[in-house]
Amino acid sequence: MDYKNGYKETIKARERIGDFIYETPLIRLNYISEMLGTSVYAKLENMQKTNSFKIRGALNKIRKLSDEELKKGVVTASSGNHGKGIATCAKMLGIPAKIVLSDTSTEAKRQMIRDLGAEIVITSVETRFEVAKEISEKEGMTFIHPYDDLDVSEGQGTIAVEVLNKMDNLKMIVPIGGGGLISGIAMYTKGVSKGSKVIGVEPENVARYTLSLKEGEPSQVNRGATLADGLLSVKPGDHVFPLVRDLVDDVVTCQDKNIKKALDLLYNKEKLIVEPSSAIGLGAILEGKIKYDDRDKLVLIITGGNVEGRAIEEIINS
């Protein structure tokens, strides 16, 4: 696959969706920087419209659909944030949307999607794609994959455009589930920056990329328990796996106990409301999985904030 000019598609995606999304803040985490003895920054997608990065990819995909496709509507499978992104885009455009959610999704995320006017269907993590594709075939709705779609990846990659417009020669630390976010970020980053690295972090109990990179092909793992409810995909996407394999510098795992420690620091010391999945990058640093020195610039991609403060407190205190 030729990645040399892939970054140009991300720039087009930024032009396509730029008027409909926020350019989210990129801030220095002062307490954590002092604690770790290096510069740590956070790209705050928890402050994005829908409080998650997912609207970027959803909107890029939907804005490429024909009028006829838009009239029939869209359907997707999601653990929550992608579904909210699709539902938000559908409401903006006045088109029908059905969201197939996993039974692991939180009630808060379900209600957010209902409030946007989309219909929800609940099923298991393992069957959610089958159910969504059946709806697509039966009702003629366009199926929008949450991560295994290059149009979606290009939209997610616009995060990297915003980061690299402000700084370069950095280590971008990205939560990794199915691979849609990190593939888009890596495509753009490696196209425009020679000195920046992209590092993926996945839950130790759902280490589908760790296994797949070892096997050399997308491989399925058994889903173990994890606090990172947004990173539960059991197999990498077929379309995005080659990008991760070829462009991402490293993929590491993180234990739940370190996700909890990171969540505590982000919530109580930096005063940020973020989902456990967003804390996994910092968790991997605390676990010693990501090497750095005092000259590094570590950029944590904070992927979402669709969680209540009391839920964060319950996790931290459990």
UniProtKB/TrEMBL annotation:
Domain Tryptophan synthase beta chain-like PALP: 19-304
Record GO biological process: isoleucine biosynthetic process; L-serine catabolic process; L-threonine catabolic process
Co-factor requirement: pyridoxal 5'-phosphate
Keyword Lyase on entry: yes
Claim: Lyase is one of the keywords in the record: yes
Pfam families (alphabetical): PALP (PF00291)
Keywords: Lyase, Pyridoxal phosphate
First-level EC class: lyase
EC number, UniProt record: 4.3.1.19
Catalytic reaction annotation: L-threonine = 2-oxobutanoate + NH4(+)
Molecular functions per Gene Ontology: L-serine ammonia-lyase activity; pyridoxal phosphate binding; threonine deaminase activity
Domain of life: Bacteria
Function: Catalyzes the anaerobic formation of alpha-ketobutyrate and ammonia from threonine in a two-step reaction. The first step involved a dehydration of threonine and a production of enamine intermediates (aminocrotonate), which tautomerizes to its imine form (iminobutyrate). Both intermediates are unstable and short-lived. The second step is the nonenzymatic hydrolysis of the enamine/imine intermediates to form 2-ketobutyrate and free ammonia. In the low water environment of the cell, the second step is accelerated by RidA.
UniProt family annotation: Belongs to the serine/threonine dehydratase family.
Name of this protein: threonine ammonia-lyase
